[in-house]
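Researcher: Sequence of Phosphoserine aminotransferase follows. Predict its structure.
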Amino acid sequence: MDNSIFNFCAGPAMLPREVMQQAQQEFLDWQGLGCSVMEVSHRSPEYIAMAKEAEQDLRELLSISDDYAVLFMHAGGRGQFFSIPMNLMPQGGVADHVVTGSWSRGAVKECQKYGQAKVVTDITYQGNNRGIAPQSEWQLSDNAAYLHYCPNETVEGVEFDYVPQVDAPLVADMSSCILSRQINVNDFGLIYAGAQKNIGPSGLAIVIVRKDLLGKARSDTPSIFDYQQQFKLDSMLNTPPTYAWYLAGLVFKWLKAQGGVAAVEEKNIAKAKLLYDFIDECDFYENRVVKHYRSRMNVPFYLADEALNDKFLQESKQAGLLALKGHRMVGGMRASIYNAMPIEGVKALTQFMADFAKKNG
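Model: Prediction complete. Tokens:
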């Protein structure tokens, strides 16, 4: 692996170097078994022990109490878009949704197939800058099965800096921010996260659900997406995504070795501040998110002269700065700086941006 290459992809995202090195070393011979972890039965004593340890490490990182089940599920984050209403919303029910970008809008679209998905607020704008309406302006339902929101929108770069306070169970799509900052799990009815940003490879989803919400799935819910059935069978109703689970376990141990979520959050604050401060101080670049709601994980930015976009992307790639093209829905550039991105990567990016502005301004 080249230390001078920094991958800013929004997902699948870079994994910690130490994790990749360990996985490489163990690839052909895991725990002295003479074969890969991908080749052993998920019901073997070795794999079951690893899976339980991964869950326990996650519980310790997030201080998850026994009141919550931790599930390792299939189909990534999008798989939860339909699993949540099938598990939590009764026939003919309503679920409130906060829309702050493309991912929370996707959850609405899926939920509408199973009941009423009420949008209580949509993304707001102050001029060209994206933001979030204050909770006092939300049009909440009296009888919602839950309220769904996305604390961090990967595409738009909009992030909540608070946890909404509602009577209904709070459901949070933390795919792009889980383990990046301290949270109180007890504030939520359900937390879910696709793994491919801060946890591991794509295909795996983590679901943390309060146990009193289990056992409410409608009768037509596929067994593999029924939270109660997965909980009873330790997330092994069928063969789980075994290698992704193994890598997630390595990432959890890496996070503990970094000092846990609190220590990682400090690093994330420093990385985001470095990049945003540079953008704000350089007229050549612009961020279009209200400062109060800027994401620590996903930093979209625009060149003053967007005719230079292709040149910027070509030269940044040559400089070892990968995947900086913004999402097609919003254009511009985007630097995703998840937990695994070291501050050296952000320094290299800001230095390149400074040099590029000087040459092309």
